[in-house]
Amino acid sequence: MKKRIRGRRVVIAIAGALAILYVLAGTGMYAYQRDFVFKPSADLKTPDQAGLPNVTARTVQMADGTDLLVWQAPPANLELPTVLYFHGQSGSISDRDKRYAQILDSGYGLLAVSYRGFAGSSGEPSEEAFVRDGIEIFDQLRADGANVIIHGESLGTGVAAAVAKARPDTRLLVLEAPYTAAVDIAAERHPWLPVSLLMRDPFVTRDRLPDVASPVLIVHGTQDRIIPYEHGEALYKIAPEPKRMLKIEGAGHGNLWPSGLWPAVLKADNDFNGS
What we know:
The structure is a single chain. This protein has helices at 2-37, 97-105, 127-143, 155-166, 182-189, 195-198, 205-208, 229-238, 257-273, and strands at 39-40, 56-61, 67-73, 82-86, 90-91, 109-113, 148-153, 172-176, 216-221, 243-248. By secondary structure, the chain is of the alpha/beta class. It has an eight-stranded mixed beta sheet, with helices on both faces. α4 links the parallel β7 (148-153) and β8. The model is unreliable at 17-26 (pLDDT under 50).
């Protein structure tokens, strides 16, 4: 009998310890989740240092007083669109210099945004703020007469889809290695946690994309280990027409651009919009 009681106590103690660990893990994820989602780098070059002398770095003040750094260059002529570029979760705005160069070499304009909380910008990062800022910047571009292609890269695909949903006059929405939702990725990586209850920034693209009025181009690599290809495929299925998907065999998460992404954007823009 005594052995049985001691055994029960050991089981209860172990169960209690596991419950405490589970609660601590959930609490830690909730408290520090934005450190995992948003990974800004302090490394920031100027456009000249990046070999982009025709790009202007300037500060744009949002309606709430937050200052955002943007890199901007006009298109070669008024007939060509401007790419509103939302980058991924890490690094800085200047890390994408080779991409910007290719956009500009095609005659297209550029406005790349450094999210709030990232290098050169003030404020704190959050999904709500990113989307609000994106819409405000889109409206500024349209007020200046620009035709706007919205390009989202990885984390930025959630921002891009939200802005395109809010602004049906988007010329083309480009989603590079997109996710159905950031909360879906978290659930796949941490199936033992109730991430849907814990995440502050779920970025639920699968709920937004069906309401996007613009043409959509989705580009995804079959060997993407960060955001599996199945996410892009699932989004393509629910995206309204007109739409197109570029499946790049053997490509991973970070090498879609050198694997033919930009020529695919140019072709999609020409086919959908006659540029």
